[in-house]
From TrEMBL:
Protein name: DUF3459 domain-containing protein
One annotated GO molecular function: hydrolase activity, acting on glycosyl bonds
Lineage of the organism: Archaea, Methanobacteriati, Methanobacteriota, Stenosarchaea group, Halobacteria
Biased composition (Basic and acidic residues): 118-133
PANTHER family assigned to the protein according to its UniProt record, in alphabetical order: ALPHA-AMYLASE FAMILY MEMBER, MALTODEXTRIN GLUCOSIDASE
Organism of origin: Haloferax litoreum
Amino acid sequence: MAVGESVQLAPRDPAPDAEYAWRVRSAPVASSLELAEDEAVVQFDPDAAGTYVLELDAPDGTHTLTIRVFPGSYLPAGSVRSGASGMSGMSGYSGQSGSARPTQVSGGASGSGSGADEAQRGDGGRPRIRLDATVEDDVVVVRADPQPNPNSETDRDDLVVEFVVDDRDEVDETAVETDGWELRVPLSAIGDRLRVHAVAIDETYSVPDTVTVERDALTDGGVAETEVEAKSQADGSGAQSASVSRPNDPPKWAQEVTLYEIYVRGYASDDDEADNTFEALEKRLDYLESLGVDCLWLTPVLQNDHAPHGYNIVDFYSIAEDLGTREDYEQFVEAAHDHGMKVLFDLVLNHSARDHPFFEDAYKNPDSDYYDWYEWQDNGEPGTYFDWEFIANFDHRNLDVRRYLLDAVDMWADVADGFRCDMAWAVPDTFWQEIRERVKSKDPEFLLLDETIPYIADFHEGMFDMHFDTTLYFTLRQVGRGDEPAERILDAIDQRAEVGFPDHAAFMLYLENHDETRYIVECGESEAMAAAGALFTLPGVPMVYGGQEIGQRGRRDALAWKHARDDIRDHYERLIEVRDETPALRYNGSFRRIDYEADSDRVVAFVRDHDDGSYLCALNFSDDPVTVDVGDLAVDATDIVSGDSIAAEGGLRVDDVAICPLA
């Protein structure tokens, strides 16, 4: 972090009735920082750059926390984290795309005390970094791949890398050697595990990356079993070995799926024969499998108030009675698994409904045991965002709140494959970090998907695997309405790196959801067909909101299955199929701009590359076909979506979406 940021610190896995106390054990010479005495949850507001070591006295002993703090001049502009769950007083940010977070933009800085002041400065923003590791002759070698910000004038060779060996692991620090972008440590100097973190430093510092090395027993062949494309080596003569993993990469399964959001109280409400909603949803699984989706996001299924969307929760431990029982829910999840589908549970941790019994007891009653569970305004009303009248913000400084929510996380993580995390920006970053370690310790392949508007690059630091691509969403809406040229879509993709997201971050691409007007209603049918093509050709993980694929026009209405548009459904089914069959269109496919010409600014073209082949992708948001001239680019004019040749005089004829192999 940097001077100027504030982070909420709390004991992990807390016992609410226990006593905790924080103190500063060591700090930079220039610091006069003191922490609140006898407080279990404190705000850490560093006043000087350097390394801080804090201590936490807890019932099970004294714990230490090491924090590396950069000068305030290194703070990426727009990335200040409050750490205090946003506190409703911060809702002044709410004018920005419906978020209580400031927009993340590039920023400049200088000076670091870590060798960074020797780097050449450019005019760009936040750099990026990737760590990989190998085991070579019984030595762990961690190599960094730093990249300057796309807008930076800094030469890559001038970037500085700062490594940090995780002090929670048993490592002989005297055996650790660093040389520029490389760190080395003998296997004999580590215990069971080594975690190395690093940032790239230019005018500011990157989102950190992490690599983990764990000891392995040798296989019969003398070679270690490895994880996540590990590059361990052993010579077969008893050499030590280890496996290597990259914990900030999204789970392998999540990189390739097509997501599908189900609005639980409308998706199958036409089924009068099912005993409960989950049974009705289960009967739709054959349809979903035939469509080609393989991961389902259910809107909240917990007991809630009168609002059918389910986000105003009154019991975080019980399935909503109008949907079915817990057994019914679990049966649905098992049936989804039998159909080859994962299930995401919609996790709400920022607030409860005002109908929650704890809030009802606390409202206008300072003597209530639950009064301190909530944020309160000076007028006695609960803290909230956007003047939402049916919810109240939790106060995450209260250990009872944290315990209550962590126990709910434990319960539902056991019966889901991942969490879609509601209002992620409104929950303390460090609480998400705790939740991530908690669920990943049980299931490393558990997915954490954040809803954050606008997106925040720091959320890829030990919090979330995948992020709502809110920038692309808004851009696709602007393009669809005709307010921006289609080429702006490429700018939206480039912005990910410009704000500092590492290349390994995953993004969920979407056109609509339960909160938004249907794209086809706002933008038109031709535009909707092209936008569908964008979901399955641009880098990211596509998400379809239930009914989107049949031309549904109502946002949360019961789905009009009897009036489904077969032409639109066939379009989606084919796009899903093509993406599944084409590695260049998926997570590991790269993306590049090309030179092209067309008579309409409603058309955009780009290329996706992979070792298995490269493909030209073209999207046309206008009502009429447009001819696209790609110059000297060698293209096979066969469109793999339609199977037809789209060769035309002067280029390629594009109706809505075309994908052609490069020759």
